Protein backbone atom coordinates (compact mmCIF):
# COMPACT_ATOMS: atom_id res chain seq x y z
CA UNK A 1 0.00 0.00 0.00
CA UNK A 2 1.14 3.54 -0.64
CA UNK A 3 -0.07 7.11 -0.53
CA UNK A 4 1.98 8.41 -3.46
CA UNK A 5 2.44 7.34 -7.07
CA UNK A 6 4.31 4.15 -6.29
CA UNK A 7 2.00 2.32 -8.71
CA UNK A 8 0.48 3.18 -12.01
CA UNK A 9 -3.05 4.49 -11.64
CA UNK A 10 -5.31 1.45 -11.93
CA UNK A 11 -8.26 1.52 -14.25
CA UNK A 12 -11.67 2.03 -12.75
CA UNK A 13 -13.14 4.27 -10.10
CA UNK A 14 -12.24 4.72 -6.48
CA UNK A 15 -13.58 2.11 -4.10
CA UNK A 16 -14.95 3.25 -0.75
CA UNK A 17 -15.53 1.22 2.42
CA UNK A 18 -19.29 1.68 2.09
CA UNK A 19 -19.20 0.39 -1.49
CA UNK A 20 -17.33 -2.73 -0.37
CA UNK A 21 -19.79 -3.34 2.45
CA UNK A 22 -22.78 -3.05 0.11
CA UNK A 23 -21.14 -5.43 -2.38
CA UNK A 24 -20.47 -7.98 0.35
CA UNK A 25 -24.03 -7.61 1.63
CA UNK A 26 -25.81 -7.96 -1.73
CA UNK A 27 -24.35 -7.55 -5.20
CA UNK A 28 -27.74 -6.73 -6.69
CA UNK A 29 -28.24 -3.93 -4.17
CA UNK A 30 -24.77 -2.66 -5.12
CA UNK A 31 -25.72 -2.67 -8.81
CA UNK A 32 -28.87 -0.63 -8.24
CA UNK A 33 -26.71 2.13 -6.78
CA UNK A 34 -23.42 1.92 -8.65
CA UNK A 35 -24.60 0.65 -12.05
CA UNK A 36 -28.14 2.01 -12.37
CA UNK A 37 -27.40 5.12 -10.30
CA UNK A 38 -30.48 4.69 -8.12
CA UNK A 39 -29.74 6.13 -4.69
CA UNK A 40 -32.03 4.91 -1.94
CA UNK A 41 -33.39 7.61 0.36
CA UNK A 42 -31.58 7.85 3.65
CA UNK A 43 -33.09 5.63 6.33
CA UNK A 44 -34.23 7.41 9.52
CA UNK A 45 -31.51 5.66 11.51
CA UNK A 46 -28.89 6.98 9.08
CA UNK A 47 -30.39 10.48 9.29
CA UNK A 48 -30.04 10.39 13.07
CA UNK A 49 -26.42 9.36 12.69
CA UNK A 50 -25.77 12.23 10.30
CA UNK A 51 -27.35 14.73 12.68
CA UNK A 52 -25.20 13.57 15.61
CA UNK A 53 -22.12 13.47 13.38
CA UNK A 54 -22.64 17.11 12.32
CA UNK A 55 -22.79 18.27 15.94
CA UNK A 56 -19.61 16.35 16.83
CA UNK A 57 -17.75 17.66 13.78
CA UNK A 58 -18.51 21.28 14.74
CA UNK A 59 -17.47 20.65 18.33
CA UNK A 60 -14.14 18.97 17.44
CA UNK A 61 -13.18 21.46 14.73
CA UNK A 62 -14.35 24.75 16.25
CA UNK A 63 -15.41 24.04 19.83
CA UNK A 64 -19.00 24.94 18.97
CA UNK A 65 -21.15 24.65 22.08
CA UNK A 66 -23.57 21.74 21.85
CA UNK A 67 -27.21 22.83 21.96
CA UNK A 68 -29.04 20.18 23.96
CA UNK A 69 -32.47 21.46 22.92
CA UNK A 70 -31.95 21.83 19.16
CA UNK A 71 -34.18 19.49 17.15
CA UNK A 72 -34.28 18.19 13.60
CA UNK A 73 -37.26 16.50 12.02
CA UNK A 74 -36.63 12.88 11.05
CA UNK A 75 -39.38 10.67 9.68
CA UNK A 76 -41.96 13.24 10.77
CA UNK A 77 -40.76 13.28 14.37
CA UNK A 78 -38.50 15.71 16.29
CA UNK A 79 -35.06 14.35 17.12
CA UNK A 80 -32.47 15.90 19.45
CA UNK A 81 -28.89 15.03 18.42
CA UNK A 82 -27.36 17.24 21.13
CA UNK A 83 -27.79 14.98 24.17
CA UNK A 84 -26.34 12.01 22.28
CA UNK A 85 -23.34 14.03 21.04
CA UNK A 86 -22.82 15.45 24.54
CA UNK A 87 -22.66 11.93 25.95
CA UNK A 88 -20.04 10.95 23.35
CA UNK A 89 -17.59 13.87 23.69
CA UNK A 90 -16.08 12.58 26.93
CA UNK A 91 -14.44 9.86 24.82
CA UNK A 92 -13.12 12.26 22.14
CA UNK A 93 -10.09 14.61 21.87
CA UNK A 94 -10.45 18.21 22.98
CA UNK A 95 -11.54 20.69 20.29
CA UNK A 96 -8.72 21.86 18.02
CA UNK A 97 -6.32 19.06 19.05
CA UNK A 98 -7.11 16.63 16.24
CA UNK A 99 -7.70 16.46 12.53
CA UNK A 100 -11.32 16.28 11.45
CA UNK A 101 -13.05 14.93 8.35
CA UNK A 102 -9.79 14.16 6.57
CA UNK A 103 -10.25 12.80 3.05
CA UNK A 104 -7.80 9.91 2.70
CA UNK A 105 -6.58 7.80 -0.21
CA UNK A 106 -4.87 4.44 -0.44
CA UNK A 107 -3.51 2.97 -3.64
CA UNK A 108 -2.63 -0.64 -4.41
CA UNK A 109 -1.75 -2.29 -7.74
CA UNK A 110 -5.42 -3.30 -7.99
CA UNK A 111 -7.50 -0.33 -6.87
CA UNK A 112 -7.77 3.16 -5.45
CA UNK A 113 -9.44 3.41 -2.06
CA UNK A 114 -10.85 6.50 -0.41
CA UNK A 115 -12.65 7.49 2.75
CA UNK A 116 -13.24 10.24 5.30
CA UNK A 117 -11.73 9.87 8.77
CA UNK A 118 -13.92 11.56 11.39
CA UNK A 119 -10.96 12.48 13.60
CA UNK A 120 -7.31 11.58 14.01
CA UNK A 121 -4.28 12.43 16.12
CA UNK A 122 -1.22 11.69 14.00
CA UNK A 123 1.57 13.15 16.15
CA UNK A 124 1.69 10.23 18.54
CA UNK A 125 4.09 7.32 18.75
CA UNK A 126 1.15 5.20 17.66
CA UNK A 127 -1.26 7.38 15.64
CA UNK A 128 -4.91 7.28 16.63
CA UNK A 129 -7.98 7.51 14.41
CA UNK A 130 -11.63 7.58 15.40
CA UNK A 131 -15.07 7.19 13.92
CA UNK A 132 -18.45 8.38 15.22
CA UNK A 133 -21.19 5.75 15.19
CA UNK A 134 -24.82 5.75 16.28
CA UNK A 135 -27.10 2.79 16.87
CA UNK A 136 -30.50 2.08 18.35
CA UNK A 137 -29.10 -0.92 20.23
CA UNK A 138 -25.52 -1.79 21.14
CA UNK A 139 -26.05 -5.34 19.98
CA UNK A 140 -25.53 -3.95 16.46
CA UNK A 141 -22.19 -2.36 17.42
CA UNK A 142 -19.07 -3.90 15.92
CA UNK A 143 -16.67 -5.62 18.27
CA UNK A 144 -12.89 -5.32 18.23
CA UNK A 145 -12.83 -8.71 16.54
CA UNK A 146 -15.17 -7.39 13.83
CA UNK A 147 -12.94 -4.38 13.24
CA UNK A 148 -9.89 -6.54 12.57
CA UNK A 149 -11.35 -7.43 9.16
CA UNK A 150 -13.55 -4.39 8.68
CA UNK A 151 -12.93 -2.64 5.31
CA UNK A 152 -13.33 0.85 6.74
CA UNK A 153 -10.98 0.19 9.67
CA UNK A 154 -8.29 -1.31 7.45
CA UNK A 155 -8.48 1.39 4.78
CA UNK A 156 -8.22 4.12 7.42
CA UNK A 157 -5.33 2.33 9.13
CA UNK A 158 -3.51 1.80 5.83
CA UNK A 159 -3.81 5.48 4.89
CA UNK A 160 -2.53 6.55 8.31
CA UNK A 161 0.41 4.14 8.18
CA UNK A 162 1.32 5.32 4.68
CA UNK A 163 1.22 8.97 5.78
CA UNK A 164 3.06 8.62 9.08
CA UNK A 165 5.30 5.61 8.49
CA UNK A 166 3.95 3.98 11.66
CA UNK A 167 3.77 0.21 11.92
CA UNK A 168 0.66 0.28 14.12
CA UNK A 169 -2.46 2.42 14.44
CA UNK A 170 -4.95 2.70 17.29
CA UNK A 171 -8.60 2.77 16.30
CA UNK A 172 -11.52 4.03 18.37
CA UNK A 173 -15.14 3.53 17.28
CA UNK A 174 -17.39 5.61 19.58
CA UNK A 175 -21.06 4.58 19.64
CA UNK A 176 -23.94 6.71 20.86
CA UNK A 177 -27.35 5.15 21.42
CA UNK A 178 -30.26 6.91 19.71
CA UNK A 179 -33.11 5.18 21.57
CA UNK A 180 -33.83 5.80 25.23
CA UNK A 181 -31.37 7.50 27.56
CA UNK A 182 -28.21 8.69 25.73
CA UNK A 183 -25.47 6.22 26.63
CA UNK A 184 -22.22 5.37 24.90
CA UNK A 185 -19.97 2.47 24.07
CA UNK A 186 -16.35 2.63 22.92
CA UNK A 187 -14.59 -0.07 20.91
CA UNK A 188 -10.76 0.04 20.82
CA UNK A 189 -8.42 -1.87 18.54
CA UNK A 190 -4.74 -1.68 17.59
CA UNK A 191 -3.98 -2.80 14.05
CA UNK A 192 -0.45 -3.68 12.96
CA UNK A 193 1.02 -3.27 9.50
CA UNK A 194 1.33 -7.01 8.87
CA UNK A 195 -2.36 -7.50 9.70
CA UNK A 196 -3.44 -4.66 7.45
CA UNK A 197 -1.37 -5.93 4.54
CA UNK A 198 -2.91 -9.41 4.88
CA UNK A 199 -6.38 -7.92 5.02
CA UNK A 200 -5.68 -5.84 1.93
CA UNK A 201 -5.09 -9.02 -0.04
CA UNK A 202 -8.75 -9.84 0.57
CA UNK A 203 -9.86 -6.25 -0.02
CA UNK A 204 -8.06 -6.23 -3.35
CA UNK A 205 -9.82 -9.43 -4.40
CA UNK A 206 -13.18 -7.91 -3.56
CA UNK A 207 -12.30 -4.63 -5.25
CA UNK A 208 -11.23 -6.46 -8.40
CA UNK A 209 -14.67 -8.07 -8.51
CA UNK A 210 -16.33 -4.68 -7.99
CA UNK A 211 -14.31 -2.95 -10.71
CA UNK A 212 -14.90 -5.81 -13.14
CA UNK A 213 -18.64 -5.70 -12.45
CA UNK A 214 -18.70 -1.96 -12.97
CA UNK A 215 -16.81 -2.27 -16.24
CA UNK A 216 -19.22 -4.97 -17.45
CA UNK A 217 -22.17 -2.73 -16.65
CA UNK A 218 -24.74 -5.51 -16.38
CA UNK A 219 -28.18 -4.34 -15.24
CA UNK A 220 -29.00 -4.90 -11.57
CA UNK A 221 -31.33 -7.86 -12.07
CA UNK A 222 -28.52 -9.83 -13.70
CA UNK A 223 -26.40 -9.64 -10.55
CA UNK A 224 -26.44 -12.20 -7.75
CA UNK A 225 -28.69 -11.43 -4.81
CA UNK A 226 -28.65 -12.17 -1.10
CA UNK A 227 -32.19 -12.67 0.18
CA UNK A 228 -30.95 -12.22 3.74
CA UNK A 229 -30.30 -8.57 2.91
CA UNK A 230 -33.92 -7.80 2.00
CA UNK A 231 -34.84 -6.94 5.60
CA UNK A 232 -31.43 -5.66 6.74
CA UNK A 233 -31.10 -2.09 8.02
CA UNK A 234 -34.84 -1.55 8.11
CA UNK A 235 -35.51 -3.11 4.70
CA UNK A 236 -33.98 -2.68 1.26
CA UNK A 237 -35.35 0.20 -0.80
CA UNK A 238 -35.15 -1.92 -3.96
CA UNK A 239 -37.29 -4.84 -2.75
CA UNK A 240 -40.26 -3.99 -4.97
CA UNK A 241 -38.17 -3.71 -8.13
CA UNK A 242 -35.70 -6.48 -7.34
CA UNK A 243 -38.00 -9.08 -8.90
CA UNK A 244 -37.26 -11.84 -6.37
CA UNK A 245 -39.87 -14.55 -6.20
CA UNK A 246 -41.39 -15.21 -2.76
CA UNK A 247 -39.42 -18.44 -2.61
CA UNK A 248 -36.13 -16.69 -3.29
CA UNK A 249 -36.82 -13.93 -0.79
CA UNK A 250 -38.05 -16.05 2.10
CA UNK A 251 -35.74 -19.02 1.68
CA UNK A 252 -32.96 -17.22 3.53
CA UNK A 253 -35.27 -16.20 6.37
CA UNK A 254 -37.29 -19.39 6.83
CA UNK A 255 -38.76 -21.03 3.75
CA UNK A 256 -41.53 -20.26 1.31
CA UNK A 257 -43.82 -22.84 2.94
CA UNK A 258 -46.46 -21.92 5.45
CA UNK A 259 -46.06 -23.38 8.90
CA UNK A 260 -48.77 -25.93 8.12
CA UNK A 261 -46.88 -27.02 5.00
CA UNK A 262 -43.62 -27.22 6.93
CA UNK A 263 -45.21 -29.40 9.57
CA UNK A 264 -46.67 -31.68 6.91
CA UNK A 265 -43.26 -31.96 5.26
CA UNK A 266 -41.59 -32.78 8.56
CA UNK A 267 -44.21 -35.39 9.44
CA UNK A 268 -43.71 -36.94 6.01
CA UNK A 269 -39.96 -36.95 6.55
CA UNK A 270 -40.29 -38.67 9.91
CA UNK A 271 -42.80 -41.17 8.53
CA UNK A 272 -40.74 -41.98 5.45
CA UNK A 273 -38.97 -45.02 6.96
CA UNK A 274 -40.46 -48.51 6.41
CA UNK A 275 -41.32 -50.75 9.42
CA UNK A 276 -38.13 -51.99 10.98
CA UNK A 277 -36.27 -48.82 10.16
CA UNK A 278 -35.35 -49.56 6.56
CA UNK A 279 -36.15 -46.94 4.01
CA UNK A 280 -38.07 -47.62 0.83
CA UNK A 281 -35.79 -48.11 -2.18
CA UNK A 282 -35.55 -45.13 -4.50
CA UNK A 283 -37.44 -45.34 -7.79
CA UNK A 284 -35.50 -46.56 -10.77
CA UNK A 285 -33.75 -43.72 -12.50
CA UNK A 286 -33.68 -41.30 -9.58
CA UNK A 287 -36.22 -39.09 -7.91
CA UNK A 288 -39.94 -39.62 -8.38
CA UNK A 289 -40.54 -36.06 -9.53
CA UNK A 290 -39.72 -35.61 -13.22
CA UNK A 291 -38.24 -39.10 -13.23
CA UNK A 292 -36.88 -40.33 -16.59
CA UNK A 293 -39.28 -42.47 -18.60
CA UNK A 294 -36.79 -45.24 -19.28
CA UNK A 295 -35.04 -47.58 -16.85
CA UNK A 296 -31.77 -45.68 -17.00
CA UNK A 297 -29.89 -45.20 -13.75
CA UNK A 298 -28.84 -41.86 -12.33
CA UNK A 299 -25.41 -40.63 -13.32
CA UNK A 300 -22.82 -40.59 -10.54
CA UNK A 301 -22.11 -37.18 -9.09
CA UNK A 302 -18.94 -35.41 -10.06
CA UNK A 303 -16.66 -34.07 -7.33
CA UNK A 304 -17.83 -30.54 -8.14
CA UNK A 305 -21.49 -31.57 -7.81
CA UNK A 306 -20.77 -33.25 -4.48
CA UNK A 307 -19.07 -30.08 -3.24
CA UNK A 308 -22.02 -27.92 -4.32
CA UNK A 309 -24.48 -30.30 -2.66
CA UNK A 310 -22.45 -30.36 0.55
CA UNK A 311 -22.30 -26.58 0.84
CA UNK A 312 -25.82 -25.77 -0.37
CA UNK A 313 -27.94 -24.27 2.45
CA UNK A 314 -30.66 -26.66 3.59
CA UNK A 315 -34.29 -25.71 3.87
CA UNK A 316 -35.97 -26.33 7.19
CA UNK A 317 -37.76 -29.37 5.81
CA UNK A 318 -34.44 -30.79 4.59
CA UNK A 319 -32.82 -30.19 7.97
CA UNK A 320 -35.68 -31.94 9.73
CA UNK A 321 -35.52 -34.85 7.28
CA UNK A 322 -31.80 -35.22 7.97
CA UNK A 323 -32.44 -35.07 11.70
CA UNK A 324 -35.16 -37.69 11.40
CA UNK A 325 -32.89 -39.97 9.39
CA UNK A 326 -30.11 -39.64 11.96
CA UNK A 327 -32.55 -40.41 14.78
CA UNK A 328 -33.89 -43.45 12.91
CA UNK A 329 -30.40 -44.85 12.40
CA UNK A 330 -29.42 -44.24 16.01
CA UNK A 331 -32.55 -45.83 17.53
CA UNK A 332 -33.28 -48.76 15.19
CA UNK A 333 -32.49 -52.16 16.82
CA UNK A 334 -29.89 -54.17 14.90
CA UNK A 335 -32.33 -56.99 14.26
CA UNK A 336 -34.90 -54.66 12.76
CA UNK A 337 -32.31 -52.87 10.68
CA UNK A 338 -30.98 -56.08 9.14
CA UNK A 339 -31.64 -56.51 5.43
CA UNK A 340 -34.80 -58.51 4.87
CA UNK A 341 -34.62 -61.63 2.70
CA UNK A 342 -36.51 -61.76 -0.54
CA UNK A 343 -39.74 -63.73 -0.80
CA UNK A 344 -42.79 -64.19 1.40
CA UNK A 345 -42.66 -64.93 5.11
CA UNK A 346 -43.24 -68.58 6.01
CA UNK A 347 -46.91 -69.56 6.16
CA UNK A 348 -48.14 -66.72 3.95
CA UNK A 349 -49.89 -67.65 0.75
CA UNK A 350 -49.35 -65.85 -2.49
CA UNK A 351 -52.97 -64.68 -2.51
CA UNK A 352 -52.80 -63.39 1.01
CA UNK A 353 -49.62 -61.54 0.18
CA UNK A 354 -51.21 -59.93 -2.86
CA UNK A 355 -54.26 -58.75 -0.92
CA UNK A 356 -52.31 -57.41 2.02
CA UNK A 357 -52.57 -53.68 2.63
CA UNK A 358 -49.24 -51.96 3.29
CA UNK A 359 -48.86 -50.79 6.87
CA UNK A 360 -49.49 -47.08 7.23
CA UNK A 361 -46.40 -45.05 8.07
CA UNK A 362 -46.59 -43.50 11.51
CA UNK A 363 -44.84 -40.62 13.22
CA UNK A 364 -43.27 -41.42 16.57
CA UNK A 365 -45.15 -39.65 19.38
CA UNK A 366 -43.36 -37.00 21.38
CA UNK A 367 -42.85 -37.87 25.02
CA UNK A 368 -41.82 -35.31 27.61
CA UNK A 369 -41.51 -35.02 31.37
CA UNK A 370 -43.14 -32.08 33.09
CA UNK A 371 -46.25 -30.79 34.80
CA UNK A 372 -49.47 -30.71 32.79
CA UNK A 373 -51.36 -27.47 33.07
CA UNK A 374 -53.77 -27.80 30.17
CA UNK A 375 -55.40 -30.23 27.80
CA UNK A 376 -54.76 -33.77 29.08
CA UNK A 377 -55.81 -36.12 31.84
CA UNK A 378 -52.82 -37.50 33.77
CA UNK A 379 -52.29 -41.24 33.38
CA UNK A 380 -52.28 -43.58 36.34
CA UNK A 381 -48.59 -42.93 36.87
CA UNK A 382 -49.30 -39.52 38.38
CA UNK A 383 -48.99 -35.88 37.40
CA UNK A 384 -45.27 -36.12 36.66
CA UNK A 385 -45.48 -39.19 34.42
CA UNK A 386 -44.36 -38.90 30.80
CA UNK A 387 -46.62 -36.84 28.56
CA UNK A 388 -47.40 -38.58 25.27
CA UNK A 389 -48.76 -36.58 22.37
CA UNK A 390 -50.99 -38.68 20.14
CA UNK A 391 -53.61 -37.28 17.74
CA UNK A 392 -53.40 -33.87 19.37
CA UNK A 393 -55.73 -31.47 17.56
CA UNK A 394 -53.41 -28.52 18.15
CA UNK A 395 -49.86 -28.53 19.50
CA UNK A 396 -48.12 -29.28 22.77
CA UNK A 397 -46.25 -26.38 24.35
CA UNK A 398 -43.09 -27.29 26.28
CA UNK A 399 -42.27 -24.34 28.54
CA UNK A 400 -38.64 -24.28 29.68
CA UNK A 401 -38.30 -28.02 29.09
CA UNK A 402 -37.75 -30.43 26.22
CA UNK A 403 -39.44 -33.61 25.03
CA UNK A 404 -37.37 -36.50 26.36
CA UNK A 405 -37.88 -38.58 23.24
CA UNK A 406 -39.96 -38.82 20.13
CA UNK A 407 -40.36 -37.34 16.73
CA UNK A 408 -41.60 -33.92 15.83
CA UNK A 409 -40.93 -30.71 17.73
CA UNK A 410 -39.89 -27.21 16.76
CA UNK A 411 -38.44 -24.17 18.52
CA UNK A 412 -40.86 -21.33 19.24
CA UNK A 413 -38.40 -18.86 17.70
CA UNK A 414 -38.82 -20.60 14.35
CA UNK A 415 -42.61 -20.37 14.55
CA UNK A 416 -42.34 -16.68 15.47
CA UNK A 417 -39.97 -15.69 12.67
CA UNK A 418 -42.63 -14.68 10.07
CA UNK A 419 -44.44 -12.61 12.70
CA UNK A 420 -41.17 -10.96 13.76
CA UNK A 421 -40.35 -10.06 10.15
CA UNK A 422 -43.88 -8.73 9.59
CA UNK A 423 -43.84 -6.51 12.69
CA UNK A 424 -40.34 -5.19 12.03
CA UNK A 425 -41.20 -4.35 8.40
CA UNK A 426 -44.51 -2.71 9.37
CA UNK A 427 -42.79 -0.41 11.87
CA UNK A 428 -39.67 0.14 9.77
CA UNK A 429 -37.21 -1.20 12.33
CA UNK A 430 -34.54 -3.88 12.16
CA UNK A 431 -36.02 -5.91 15.01
CA UNK A 432 -39.44 -5.83 16.67
CA UNK A 433 -37.81 -5.06 20.03
CA UNK A 434 -36.77 -1.63 18.71
CA UNK A 435 -40.40 -0.47 18.63
CA UNK A 436 -41.43 2.02 21.32
CA UNK A 437 -40.97 0.65 24.82
CA UNK A 438 -43.97 -1.35 26.07
CA UNK A 439 -45.51 -1.84 22.63
CA UNK A 440 -43.13 -4.30 20.99
CA UNK A 441 -44.47 -7.39 22.73
CA UNK A 442 -48.08 -6.44 22.05
CA UNK A 443 -47.45 -6.00 18.33
CA UNK A 444 -45.64 -9.34 18.14
CA UNK A 445 -48.38 -11.17 20.07
CA UNK A 446 -51.05 -9.78 17.76
CA UNK A 447 -49.14 -10.82 14.62
CA UNK A 448 -48.41 -14.28 16.04
CA UNK A 449 -52.05 -14.74 17.07
CA UNK A 450 -53.23 -13.93 13.55
CA UNK A 451 -50.81 -16.44 12.04
CA UNK A 452 -51.60 -19.24 14.47
CA UNK A 453 -55.31 -18.68 13.84
CA UNK A 454 -54.91 -18.64 10.06
CA UNK A 455 -52.44 -21.55 9.96
CA UNK A 456 -53.14 -23.84 12.92
CA UNK A 457 -50.26 -26.07 13.99
CA UNK A 458 -51.27 -29.59 14.95
CA UNK A 459 -49.72 -32.77 16.26
CA UNK A 460 -46.29 -31.44 17.19
CA UNK A 461 -44.43 -30.01 20.15
CA UNK A 462 -43.27 -26.39 20.38
CA UNK A 463 -40.41 -25.61 22.77
CA UNK A 464 -40.51 -22.17 24.41
CA UNK A 465 -37.72 -20.66 26.51
CA UNK A 466 -39.16 -17.96 28.79
CA UNK A 467 -35.69 -16.74 29.75
CA UNK A 468 -35.52 -14.93 26.40
CA UNK A 469 -37.31 -11.71 25.41
CA UNK A 470 -39.09 -13.63 22.67
CA UNK A 471 -40.25 -16.30 25.12
CA UNK A 472 -41.59 -13.74 27.58
CA UNK A 473 -43.35 -11.78 24.83
CA UNK A 474 -45.07 -14.79 23.24
CA UNK A 475 -45.85 -17.08 26.19
CA UNK A 476 -49.41 -15.79 26.47
CA UNK A 477 -50.16 -16.33 22.78
CA UNK A 478 -48.62 -19.78 22.52
CA UNK A 479 -50.47 -20.84 25.68
CA UNK A 480 -53.75 -19.63 24.19
CA UNK A 481 -53.38 -21.81 21.10
CA UNK A 482 -51.79 -24.89 22.71
CA UNK A 483 -53.80 -28.05 23.25
CA UNK A 484 -51.41 -29.29 25.91
CA UNK A 485 -48.97 -27.35 28.07
CA UNK A 486 -45.99 -28.98 29.77
CA UNK A 487 -43.90 -26.94 32.18
CA UNK A 488 -40.51 -27.66 33.70
CA UNK A 489 -40.64 -29.11 37.19
Compact overview of the structure:
By secondary structure, the protein is of the alpha/beta class. It has two domains: 17-242, Lambda Exonuclease, Chain A; 366-487, no CATH class.
List the helices and strands and how they pair.
Elements: H1 17-25, H2 27-34, H3 44-62, E1 72-74, E2 77-79, H4 82-88, E3 99-107, E4 112-121, E5 128-135, H5 144-149, H6 151-164, E6 168-177, E7 184-192, H7 193-216, H8 239-242, H9 246-251, H10 259-271, H11 303-311, H12 316-331, H13 334-337, H14 350-355, E8 366-368, E9 371-374, E10 387-389, E11 396-399, E12 403-405, E13 409-411, H15 412-426, H16 440-454, E14 461-464, H17 469-481, E15 484-487
Parallel strand pairs: 5-6, 11-14, 11-15, 13-14
Antiparallel strand pairs: 1-2, 3-4, 4-5, 6-7, 8-10, 8-12, 9-15
What is the number of strand segments?
A: 15
Mean pLDDT: 75
The coarse overall form would be: globular
CATH architecture label name of the largest domain: Alpha-Beta Complex
* Uncertain parts: 1-7, 254-258, 274-320, 326-391
Main beta sheet, described? 5 strands, mixed
* Structural class estimated from helices and strands: alpha/beta
Strand order of the largest sheet: 3-4-5-6-7
Q: What does the radius of gyration come to?
A: 30 Å
Q: If you consult CATH, what is the topology of the largest domain?
A: Lambda Exonuclease, Chain A
Description:
The structure is a single chain. The chain is α/β, with parallel strands linked by helices and 489 residues long. The protein folds into two domains: 17-242, Alpha-Beta Complex (Lambda Exonuclease, Chain A), CATH 3.90.320; 366-487, no CATH class. Helix content is 38%, strand content 16%. It is built from 17 helices and 15 strands. It has helices spanning 17-25, 27-34, 44-62, 82-88, 144-149, 151-164, 193-216, 239-242, 246-251, 259-271, 303-311, 316-331, 334-337, 350-355, 412-426, 440-454, 469-481; strands at residues 72-74, 77-79, 99-107, 112-121, 128-135, 168-177, 184-192, 366-368, 371-374, 387-389, 396-399, 403-405, 409-411, 461-464, 484-487. The strands form four sheets. A five-stranded mixed beta sheet has the order 3-4-5-6-7. It has a five-stranded mixed beta sheet with strand order 9-15-11-14-13. A three-stranded antiparallel beta sheet has the order 10-8-12, with no helix packed on it. Helix 3 (44-62) crosses helix 4 (82-88), helix 6 (151-164) crosses helix 7 (193-216) and helix 10 packs parallel to helix 12 (316-331). The longest helix has 24 residues, at 193-216. The chain is globular and about 70 Å long. Pfam families: PDDEXK_1 (PF12705). InterPro entries: PDDEXK-like_dom_sf, PDDEXK_AddAB-type. Residues 272-304, 326-383 are annotated as: Disordered.
